[in-house]
Structure formats: C-alpha cells, structure tokens
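To: structure desk
From: M.T.
Subject: fold request, one chain
Message: Could you run this one when you get a chance? Sequence is below, nothing fancy, just the single chain.
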Amino acid sequence: MKEPYGKTKLLSKQARGIIDLVRPFTLVPPFIVSMSIIVASMIYNKAHMPENWLFIAGNASLTVAMVNAASNSLNQATDVKADKISKSYRPIPRGIIRVDGAQSLAYILYLFALLRAVTLNVWFGIFIFLIMIFTVTYSLPPRMKQYLFINQVWIAIPRGLLGILAAWSVFGDPLTPTPLVIGSIATVYLIGGMATKDIIDSVADKKTGTHTLINTYGIKKTALICFPFMLFPFIFIYIFINAGILEPYLWPLIFLSFLSCLIFVLMIKKTKSKKLENVHAWSIMYIEYIFFALGFAILTIYGGISKIQTFF
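Reply: Done. Structure tokens follow.
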C-alpha cells in the first residue's frame, strides 16, 4: 500500500512496516489458488475425506502463502537501492525497518514454512523446498532477478507449476497429467503476466543493473512479447481436452483469455492504482490467476458430482 506511515490507533509504525514487508495483497492469490487446487484434487482423485480436511487444506495453503511472504520480505531487503528510487514509501527506504531485520523475518518465515510442510507429506515438503530455492536465488546470488528473460521464468515456475503441484500433492499424486498440465498452463501465463510488476520499477531496475523486458524493449514491445504467453495457454485448453489430457467440463476456462486481452490493453496504458503500489494490469493479472484456480476447482467439483450422480 502507498498510504503514508502515521500514527494509528491499532498499529505502530514498526508493525505496519512488517505488514508492508510481506505485502498482504500478494499473499491472497497463492492462498486462494492453493486452497482451490487442494479441494479440486480431493474431488478429482476421490480421496478419502478426513474429518479435518478443511484444517489440512488451510494449513497447506497458509504454508504456500508463508513462503511467498518470506520471498517478499527477502526481495525488499535486497532491493533497497531500487526501492529508494521507485518505491521510497516502503518500510526499509523510510527507515522503519532495517535490512537485517527484513532478512531475519524472511529466514524465520522460510524455516517455519518448511517445518509445516514436511509434517503434511513428503511430496508437499519437497515442492515447498523447491519453491524456496527458486525464490531465494531470485533475490540472492546468483540473483536470477537481474537476468533478462530468465527472471520472468524464474518467478513463474514456483508460483505456477511448483505451487500447483504442491497443492495437488496434499490429496493426490502430483506427477499425473492433470496437475502437470494445469501447472504448465499457469506457468506459461505467469511468464507473460509477471512482466506487469516491472512497469513501475523500469527506471530503478535499469539504474541498479536489473534487466527486464520493460526497461530493455519498452512497454509496447513488452506487451506484444508477453501477450501470447497470457493468451494461448487458455486457448490450448481446448486442444488438451480434445487430446483426452484434460476433462471436457474444463472448457469454460477458455474464456479467461478475454481477461488476458484486458491485461494487454492495460499494460500499454500503464494506468496506476491509487491504493496499490503498481499498475492496474498487475492487479488484474493476479485476479485472472485466482479466477483460473477457482474456475478449475468449481468445474472439477461439478464434474465429480456429475459423475457420481451418473453412476447411481
């Protein structure tokens, strides 16, 4: 949030700083996506539904969100120079939180998330560990964030494929076609969509040695480069259905391609949000990802119920 730090009735400046370090808005998508995929996995695989299934699903989803919170805190700790230029309202540039404090918070969250993950099952623990590797090396040496094209892929894999496989593994086998295809669709979409986060940071990234599509090719060329990544994964759902890889009832997910078109238009316009710290295209990108996961879960639940009713 871009609101200034001031005296509040409920929170001190330090408490507000810690909240801003983890960036709550960006934690909502991984939680909802994980929760949706977990429930879809349970229905799709006809898994035995334990009495505490909601607690298990919530615990796993919070763990994924916790890793994202750790990543956000670590990223701010390592991006101080850039943030002083483009996001001076953040807690570290303002002197509310120290760099070592932000790093300590990140490492504590990483450790706590990993300990929670391994208590669920082995596969979930493995995927959470892999997500951590990607997010840590994105910000720390070899700092993949600074390399053109690689930075897009490096952030999309943990938030797309690995995140979905982790969620699916709670009640199902992650190495089956459905989660692999859904995870791949999400990854390709995010490779294009994540470019939206670099629009505001274009000048700061260039001055600090981070090469992004935005500061290398400009906003219009970047939008044209990224548009196919955001559009075709959803159109290809029809192909996957015809090939028998995905269930026929998932065809409505194709309509998400219209949101991708909206993101393309908003990227070119570069309309900034008054409340959130980035452009509207960035917000819509996250919303579309949430709709993708929710739509997949709802359609899978509907499909599972329909099969049961047909059987009886």
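Reply (cont.): The two ends are 52 Å apart (CA to CA). Let me know if you need anything else for the meeting.
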